[in-house]
Design goal:
The chain is an alpha+beta fold. It has ten helices and seven strands. It starts with a helix and ends with a helix. Bound molecules: FE2/S2 (inorganic) cluster.
Length: 248
């Protein structure tokens, strides 16, 4: 079976930006609407999640190189040393620090972990359960329902989800309804314009994904919460906007 790195065409030392670019390219190539297939599309998504979560096996050529080095009796620079790990940790710490101090929007992508509210309801999980995302991670859910992706700085959460092949709910795309609402469990989703959500809903962690931009390094959201009490009343019929766009 191909390594997730091979599926995405990545080197073992690819950084987050390279991972993101490779994923976008492969999503387009493998999408059923663009000549790919559903199976290949899912394979690409699973590979992306495995690379992001750090569970992916290294690419085949990296394994071959390691084997060749070991056969030649060399051990130079093939495996990271404790000092390398410490240095990498220091680098990450310093990057995280500079991201924190750089202002509202981090210069690096936000790692978004998402969960479909339908799954929460089906499993009768408690919405405010602190272990909610751990349960989701252990439940072998469909990639449409649970997973991770990287959102680029400046992207709205809805744009980021759509760029990566997901079909999350929306209607107006302008902060005027609650169709695109998400519940932020951890992290921050910044909205710079007024919207329809009441103070109470905002205090409870609800945000609009069509105008909300991730501003934390990690973000956990439950999407598709539009039917929850308080949000359902703010929904608009999505087809009205689809008709308006078709008439443009
Ligand atoms: S789609 Fe209407 S507020 Fe986001």
């Amino acid at each position: 079976m191909d390594s997730p790195y091979d599926v995405l065409g990545l080197d073992a030392d690819a950084d987050d930006t390279e991972i993101e670019q490779a994923y976008r390219r492969r999503v387009k190539e493998s999408h059923p609407d663009r000549g790919g297939s559903a199976a290949e599309f899912q394979r690409v998504r699973k590979a992306y999640e495995a690379v992001l979560s750090g569970t992916a096996a290294p690419p085949a050529d990296a394994t071959a190189e390691d084997d060749a080095t070991a056969t030649a009796g060399g051990n130079t620079a093939s495996s990271p040393t404790a000092a390398d790990s410490a240095a990498n940790t220091d680098d990450r710490d310093s990057q995280e620090h500079s991201a924190d101090s750089a202002g509202d929007r981090p210069p690096t992508p936000t790692r978004v972990e998402y969960l479909n509210y339908d799954v929460v309801a089906d499993h009768q999980w408690e919405f405010d359960d602190p272990a909610l995302f751990e349960r989701a991670s252990d439940a072998d859910l469909d990639p449409d329902d649970y997973g991770m992706f990287l959102a680029e700085p400046g992207e709205t959460l809805l744009e980021a989800a759509e760029e990566r092949g997901f079909a999350w709910p929306f209607a107006c795309r302008g902060g005027a309804c609650a169709n695109c609402a998400v519940a932020v469990v951890e992290g921050e989703l910044d909205s710079t314009v007024d919207n329809v959500l009441t103070d109470d809903l905002v205090d409870r962690g609800f945000r609009l994904s069509c105008i909300g931009r991730p501003v934390s390094e990690t973000l956990q959201v439950v999407y598709n919460v539009k039917h929850l009490p308080g949000l359902d009343d703010l929904r608009l019929p999505a087809d009205r906007f689809e008709r308006a766009r078709a008439d443009d």
